[in-house]
Design brief:
single chain, alpha/beta, Nucleotidyltransferase, domain 5, 6-stranded mixed β-sheet, 5-stranded mixed β-sheet, 14 helices, 23% strand
Length: 309
């Protein structure tokens, strides 16, 4: 069975086309990424603007055409923080359903965290071996820390703060002033105090654009290579060193880096601040990057349904 899963996030829209095999395994056919900024202005106005409807439609229409070209049998689309918060989410969902013929499922924070966890740890599971994982997902509107053993989730913790939300609230200039950086750090610290410490021997895994961008910078990649990014270990020291350089740059200067996409440049510093403060709270000296995440977890949910796992 070939399926398509679409992760409609606050900053990005991601699509996976995958084959579900008879043994319950998953094989990637296409893995696509677009920065659509669905959540632009949602934190302040609690509403998705009309122009965003059209921008999102353009990306989703392209994904549907690609899905059809790949002869996918089913499209499963899920929305996260921006759609949870928007008062006009029903209008947006109806608009997309009318234009493209598929429904968007709005995930709760807990559902998002659990599915992201499943997608991320699938990269690192070892046969017949029990291992503790914690998955950090820094999104545009929220940040989730989910821990468990192998595929079993034991704890989910969500913060109502993400790289887009923090940028729109505090980091409004380019480059940000020293006082706004300090204010952003203080804001994140006030929130991460609610995160619990991780059990001993826990592998901390990070997903989403902040992590993959940092990995690409740390590896000095001229072009993105998911095979090198996924599994790359970032140390707290290297993340801090990169941040100290990037925080002095304007958005235009940041986009000169081949590893930083234009649509991510203005929110990257906020994402790094969140990452640094979470790692400090957890006393984590390193984090392993995964190129997988929610879109893989949605697909794996279908695998487990199919095999009654």
């Amino acid at each position: 069975m070939r399926i398509t899963t679409i992760d409609i996030g606050t900053n990005t829209i991601l699509m996976l086309v995958a084959d579900i095999h008879s043994d319950g395994s998953l094989a990637t056919v296409r893995d696509e990424h677009a920065i659509a900024r669905l959540g632009k202005g949602v934190d302040k106005h609690k509403k998705i603007p009309e122009e965003t409807f059209q921008r999102a439609l353009s990306f989703l229409k392209g994904y549907k055409e690609l899905s059809d070209t790949c002869r996918s049998e089913k499209i499963i689309a899920c929305g996260t923080s921006a759609l949870r918060d928007a008062v006009n989410k029903k209008e947006f969902i109806s608009f997309i359903a009318k234009e493209l013929g598929f429904t968007i499922e709005v995930l709760s924070g807990d559902e998002e965290a659990e599915l992201t966890y499943l997608g991320a740890v699938s990269d690192f599971l070892q046969p017949h071996q029990e291992q503790n994982f914690a998955v950090l997902d820094i999104g545009g509107g929220s940040t989730e820390l989910t821990s468990g053993t192998n595929k079993r989730v034991s704890q989910k913790q969500s913060l109502d703060i993400g790289c887009v939300r923090l940028t729109e609230r505090i980091l409004k200039t380019s480059p940000p002033s020293a006082s706004s950086v300090s204010q952003a750090i203080a804001e994140v610290r006030n929130q991460v105090v609610t995160y619990s410490m991780l059990p001993a021997q826990t592998k901390l895994v990070g997903v989403a654009g902040t992590l993959t961008t940092l990995a690409a910078i740390d590896l000095n990649l001229a072009a993105y290579d998911r095979n090198r990014v996924s599994g790359h270990i970032l140390t707290l020291e290297s993340i801090q060193r990169i941040f100290d350089v990037l925080k002095t740059k304007s958005v235009k200067e940041l986009t000169a880096y081949p590893q930083i996409l234009a649509g991510r440049a203005d929110v990257l510093l906020a994402g790094i601040i969140i990452l640094l403060e979470v790692m400090k709270k957890l006393n984590a000296e390193q984090i392993t990057v995964s190129d997988r995440g929610l879109r893989y977890g949605i697909a794996l949910r279908e695998v487990y349904k199919k095999d009654d796992i």
